[in-house]
Amino acid sequence: MLGGYGGISSIDISGSKAFLKKFLGGKTGTGCALDCGAGIGRITKRLLLPLFKTVDLVDVTKEFLDKARSYLGDDGKRVGNYFCCGLQEFVPETGRYDVIWIQWVIGHLTDDHLVEFLRRCQKALRPNGLIIIKDNVSYEGVVPDEVDSSVCRDLEIVRRLVGQAGLRIVHEEQQMNFPKEIYQVHTLALR
């Protein structure tokens, strides 16, 4: 769901792959990943399935998950679960995931829901697992988006919420080569 910026998909995936490869093959395993706010499975198909043995998808919209089944094609055989649930209610299985990927969806959660979700995600990690947040960040404060009823938080607010969840940022990068007219996108690896 690139909001009219479909042309950035390859840049996005390349940046995400380079970010993830800093951790995979070392201590972080490649057994199972979770795609949060998966939509039709763009990130699952292009980023996660090439790197992990199994991927689970969670999205609040059943129609998107139904489309994901056909969009993923043969690669969909390695999808473990399709969970239709909002992240504010989703409880991932304890100790299942090497990587939990959360992209362009935290703006749909309240601060409290985000903190609680991150706490549940921490319990769902395997040893040396990572939670990855990749999202737009505002320049200052919280900026509401009336079009999709979400918010865009600045980096300091995101960092504070991560800390409240009992997590620490182990690596952080800005996504490069995106159009200048959109908010900066940052990727944070959490443990």
From TrEMBL:
<dbReference type="InterPro" id="IPR008576">
    <property type="entry name" value="MeTrfase_NTM1"/>
</dbReference>
<protein>
    <recommendedName>
        <fullName>protein N-terminal methyltransferase</fullName>
        <ecNumber>2.1.1.244</ecNumber>
    </recommendedName>
</protein>
<keyword id="KW-0539">Nucleus</keyword>
<comment type="similarity">
    <text>Belongs to the methyltransferase superfamily. NTM1 family.</text>
</comment>
<keyword id="KW-0808">Transferase</keyword>
<dbReference type="InterPro" id="IPR029063">
    <property type="entry name" value="SAM-dependent_MTases_sf"/>
</dbReference>
<keyword id="KW-0949">S-adenosyl-L-methionine</keyword>
<keyword id="KW-0489">Methyltransferase</keyword>
<dbReference type="Pfam" id="PF05891">
    <property type="entry name" value="Methyltransf_PK"/>
</dbReference>
